[in-house]
From TrEMBL:
Subcellular location: Endosome membrane; Late endosome membrane; Lysosome membrane
Organism, scientific name: Nicrophorus vespilloides
Origin superkingdom: Eukaryota
A Pfam family hit: zf-LITAF-like
PROSITE patterns in UniProt: LITAF
Transmembrane segments: 79-98
Name of this chain's protein: Uncharacterized protein LOC108559583
Membrane topology per record: Peripheral membrane protein
Family to which the UniProt record says this protein belongs: Belongs to the CDIP1/LITAF family.
Length: 120
């Protein structure tokens, strides 16, 4: 059984009133050219860090700085040592812990010593 329902269409004036009500209750639109910033560092764009010290603006003291680097052991360090152990190079297994190549590079601000990011 095919039954069609006759639904009356709203008048043009009603459509206009409904649209006005919808526009008033709606959140304001954001401009399309707006740049999205990282919310952890308000007002400063995020930076990709590399293996060497680099210039950037500190998110804490807002100074134009060249980062200082500190090295920390990471999963890469432990994996390299594990691989050396598995290949029967037990005496060389400690070498990755002394080589900065296998460590994570942590970038810090030289002024306020705040952590900025890392490179692995």
């Amino acid at each position: 059984m095919n039954t069609s329902y006759n639904i009356p269409q709203p008048r043009t004036e009603d459509k206009h009133e409904m649209m006005q009500g919808f526009m008033q209750n709606r959140a304001p639109e954001t401009p399309r050219n707006e740049i999205k910033m990282n919310m952890n560092t308000p007002g400063i764009a995020s930076v990709q860090f590399g293996p060497k010290s680099q210039r950037c603006i500190c998110h804490k003291c807002h100074a134009d700085i060249s980062t200082t680097i500190k090295w920390k052991t990471s999963k890469t360090t432990h994996s390299a040592a594990r691989c050396l152990c598995m290949t029967c190079c037990f005496l060389c297994a400690c070498l990755p812990y002394f080589m900065n190549r296998f460590k994570r590079r942590l970038h810090y601000c030289p002024n306020c010593d705040s952590y900025l990011g890392y490179y692995e």
